[in-house]
Write a structure and sequence with these properties.
Number of domains: 2
Strand content: 25-35%
Structural class: alpha+beta
Radius of gyration: 31 Å
Number of helices: 2
């Protein structure tokens, strides 16, 4: 097993960064509400669980997603280790005292080769993020529980309204006539 690079060689390694951005929630399309149709045909609008950050804040209408940017950084090879697992390089960036390591397939002779590898890595990461974004919706049981909870609250509030309407009528009937 031969090393592609020697000590003192300049080589390039792809690095990519992740930048957070907010995108419209794919469940509620930014409205913060979703429509649930119960088995009896009743329709309810409930807070979206896909963009609910939890805590005391309600649904926001947006979810986090990440953009990745790729760059090829130049390194100087400072050490080469050949073992049964393959070749590993120790790298120094800009002559500082901080060292990185790279396996043979992660280090390239040209910027173009490194950028191509970085773009491949970025595409893989972005695909993983997009899968997670689309999987952010809660399962049917969770939506059903929410619908049942809000339906119960509506019934409880309707009972309270009727009770208080009755009390107002009694108060009006017993009110003293103006003098």
């Amino acid at each position: 097993m031969d090393a592609r690079f020697k000590i003192g060689d300049r080589a390039f390694k792809a690095n990519y960064g992740r930048h957070e951005k907010m995108v419209t929630c794919p469940d509620c399309l930014g409205s913060t509400k979703v429509r649930v149709i119960l088995g009896d045909g009743t329709e309810l609008a409930i807070d979206c669980g896909g963009c609910d950050p939890g805590g005391y804040r309600g649904s926001t209408g947006a979810v986090k997603q990440y953009d990745y940017s790729t760059e090829a950084r130049p390194y100087t090879v400072t050490s080469v280790k050949v073992s049964m697992d393959g070749v590993e390089y120790e790298l120094n960036h800009f002559g500082g005292g901080v060292y990185w390591t790279a396996k043979d397939g992660e280090l390239f002779a040209t910027v173009e080769e490194a950028m191509a590898d970085g773009e491949r890595q970025r595409a893989e990461r972005e695909a993983d993020e997009n899968k997670r974004l689309m999987a952010k919706t809660k399962d049917a049981k969770s939506w059903a529980w929410n619908a049942t909870y809000h339906r119960k609250c509506i019934k409880d509030h309707e009972k309270q309204i009727e009770y208080h309407k009755t009390k107002v009528q009694i108060c009006a009937a017993k009110a003293k006539e103006p003098a």
